[in-house]
Amino acid sequence: MKRKPIVIAHRGACGYLPEHTIAGKALAFAMGTDFVELDAVLTKDDRAIVFHDHYLNAMTDVADVFPGKKRKDGKFYAVDFTLEEIKELTIHERLHPDTGNAVYPGRFPKGSRINFGIPTLEEEIALVQGLNRSMRKDVGIYIEPKGPAYHRGEGKCIEDVVLDILKRYGYSSRDSRCYIQSFEPDSIRYMRNDLKSDLTMVQLIGDNTWEETPGVDYYRMMTPEGLDEVARYADLIGPWMNQIAVDEGKGREPMLTKLVAWAHERNMEVHPYTFRADALPSYAGSFDDLLEIFFVTISVDGVFTDFPDKVNDFLIRSGLR
Ligand code: G3P
Ligand code: CA
Question: Which atom of ligand 1 is nearest to the CA of 204?
Answer without folding.
Answer: 2
